[in-house]
Specification:
Layout (H helix, E strand, L loop, with lengths): L1 E6 L13 E6 L2 E5 L5 H5 L10 E3 L5 H4 L2 H13 L7 E5 L4 H7 L5 E5 L6 E3 L2 E7 L7 E6 L5 E4 L9 H5 L4 E5 L16 H11 L3 E5 L8 H10 L3 E4 L6 E2 L4
Bound molecules: zinc ion.
Zinc ion (ZN) binds next to loops.
């Protein structure tokens, strides 16, 4: 699978940036993970909107869903223009019924409820879910290809041992790193760079990519923090790069 960061910032986007989203592609199937502020614009620098097949939402904080409304409009208008010939499938948890029902959009977008109890087949992948430790109900995602190679997205979370067995055995960990370790007590519900490194170390992944980055401080310090405890490859998520997992 090919993974492209579209939005790497937590909370709000800087000029010409975007908050949380990744594009995942394999065998011509294209899936968006989260749809934060600025993401619809960033997405279209990679693919035309009508080529998007699915969207997975991890939780309903604005920096993960801000662009869902404009995505709905885009899908509707491109369908009316005969550019798009199918529904967009949206996967999200239904613990917040109002937010979940808002994802359904006429005949244009169809929402499917996801939960840690059930593996979902989305395009060429099996996708598993794990509850994180966050002020609102939030799911980490594990995408596994047909050869059993997987990548995990932590989404938003504080340190929780729940994630360890979920991540173990994955090739790539894309972890949030919302703040610096000396500030972690001030930012509840999130990880520091060092804690992201600890997740990678304790689960034995090969590579760690840090995302959901803070607008303050020197973000390269997050990499240094992670490298203090994890000896594999550590990088900041970079929208100019793509990350390959497995053969696809
Ligand atoms: Zn959040």
């Amino acid at each position: 699978m090919k993974i492209t960061p579209l939005g790497i910032w937590g909370a709000y986007p800087p000029a010409n940036g975007a908050t949380s989203a990744f594009l995942i592609e394999e065998e011509g199937f294209r899936c968006l993970v989260d749809c934060g502020s600025g993401v619809l614009s960033a997405l279209q620098t990679h693919i035309p909107l009508h080529e998007l097949d699915a969207l997975v939402i991890t939780h309903y904080h604005p920096d993960h869903i801000a662009d869902v409304g404009v995505l709905q409009h885009g899908v509707m208008i491109e369908t009316m223009l005969d550019k798009r010939d199918r529904q967009l499938h949206v996967y999200a948890h239904a613990n917040d019924e109002d937010q979940f029902s808002n994802l359904q959009y006429g005949k244009y977008m169809r929402a499917t409820a996801i939960s840690p109890q059930q593996t979902e087949t989305i395009g060429p992948w099996h996708v598993d879910f794990c509850e994180t430790d966050h002020p609102v109900y939030c799911l980490a995602l594990k995408f596994t290809d047909q050869h059993g190679v997987s990548a995990v997205f932590t989404s938003d979370t504080a340190w929780t041992p729940n994630l360890l067995p979920f991540i173990k055995g994955s090739e790539l960990l894309i972890s949030e790193a919302s703040t610096y370790h000396h500030m972690i007590d001030q930012i509840p519900g999130h990880l520091s760079g060092r804690q992201a490194g600890q997740l990678a170390h304790e689960t034995g992944v090969e590579r760690l990519v840090l995302t959901h980055l803070p607008q303050y401080g020197n973000i390269n310090d997050l990499v240094a923090e992670a490298k203090d405890v994890f000896f594999g490859e550590v990088t900041l998520a970079d929208p100019a790069k793509t990350y390959r997992v497995g053969k696809g």
